[in-house]
Amino acid sequence: MTTSPVPELLGQAGLRGRVAELREIHAAAERGPGDRATEVQHAKGKLTARERIELLFDPGSFHEVEQLRRHRATGFGLEAKKPYTDGVVTGWGTVEGRTVFVYAHDFRIFGGALGEAHATKIHKIMDMAISAGAPLVSLNDGAGARIQEGVSALAGYGGIFQRNTRASGVIPQISVMLGPCAGGAAYSPALTDFVFMVRETSQMFITGPDVVKAVTGEEITQNGLGGADVHAETSGVAHFAYDDEETCIAEVRYLLSLLPQNNRENPPLAPTADPADRRSDTLLDLVPVDGNRPYDMAEVIEELVDDGEYLEVHERWARNIICALARLGGEVVGIVANQPKSLAGVLDIEASEKAARFVQLCDAFNIPIVTLLDVPGFLPGVDQEHGGIIRHGAKLLYAYCNATVPRISLILRKAYGGAYIVMDSQSIGADLTYAWPTNEIAVMGAEGAANVIFRRQIAEAEDPEAMRARMVKEYRTELMHPYYAAERGLVDDVIDPAGTREVLIASLAMLRTKHADLPARKHGNPPQ
């Protein structure tokens, strides 16, 4: 890490000599701090910044920006260490032929810590991504702010956060956590659309284990505090977690193939050999008629979407609801579905937050939303009420009501109470609502309704249990039969489950040119 690049070449005369000098300088910048530093990185189970970039982009498509940038800081020995790139590689390339911007921390240089020049490079590439209208991927592997540069480093983070916010809903932003991310640095990934993590090698936390122990007395490891599994299952900070970097970055490429370049474009269409009119007779046996029997909604989704392929977001957090990106007839859709095999598919605080954010993402990037309902209601309990289920549930309601993309809802079995309304019912703006002949739409289940409505008759009957059974049957027959909502125009059609795929694809084709405007306003004030 010298201040003068290649002294022995500086005296060469003529353009050919200068080109040779230039090539050597670029080669030195690409090599970085040397083989030893690379070996240390590999020993930790981590790739280098440039190896990660090679995995992300189409071969030969990467163009680097400001490769020869160096910091200008002095003091604490910095003046003697001025490596090229200043610890971050920035540029653009293509993923399946479409432009994507990237910045990648190089942990081998200053531990990937952010200084003034480092931050300025990131600011520039973020501005370029916003101007070009192309996705931004950050490959994070840094030790936080460069302490030797003091407040200048902290100001650099502020510039990143401001740009994350400005880019939100304009271009897709993907954060890939491939090393430590502590303190204020963790807020940039939190502001982006998706967070990927790798087990064992990546961690995110505001205060590390040492600080936690000093303040609370709790002892915990870095992975136990902020590892990939913690954030994928408990906190919900990470949308995806993988065992190795290669798989992780391959999935980033797959995600990018499902997203538009920006908010002014539609997601890319993809040809499919899966017939639009393919019948799914398996569904007739997959979903039990008895509303109390669980089943796996993921299997329903597999039957409906092209080739059975979908990418589930937040798969291991709030498992009672599924949020996934898939294709129907080659068109990308966002799927929100209750999961009956987890908490019976109820809506709770975490499920409401998870689905609300996903609905907002789909709406921001012109992705139609298909909602699959089988929901018994909101989860009752003191913890839920005291935890704010009202305002958290309202987030999902607000997200759906505010969404202007094509919206189709399908009621498979039960849809009770407020949860039915919140899950994109026709009354809050769903464009089309379908139901299977197993649907039950009501304020509550027949048993609960009968106990309320016929409380006196049941209490006064000679045989209360027989009276209760008769009243439950009567209520179900009168108000919960499969065609009750359709007769009142709250369901557009009751359909054959086996023909659901064809109905959804035809409906999406019709809605492709949908245009809807929201009232003029600076922005709404969604529930927090």
UniProtKB/TrEMBL annotation:
Annotated PROSITE patterns: COA_CT_CTER, COA_CT_NTER
Domain (CoA carboxyltransferase C-terminal): residue spans on this chain: 275-524
Pfam families: Carboxyl_trans
InterPro entries: AccD/PCCB (IPR051047), AcCoA_carboxyl_beta (IPR034733), ClpP/crotonase-like_dom_sf (IPR029045), COA_CT_C (IPR011763), COA_CT_N (IPR011762)
Ranges for domain CoA carboxyltransferase N-terminal: 15-271
Protein name, entry field: Acyl-CoA carboxylase subunit beta
Species per Swiss-Prot/TrEMBL record: Streptomyces drozdowiczii
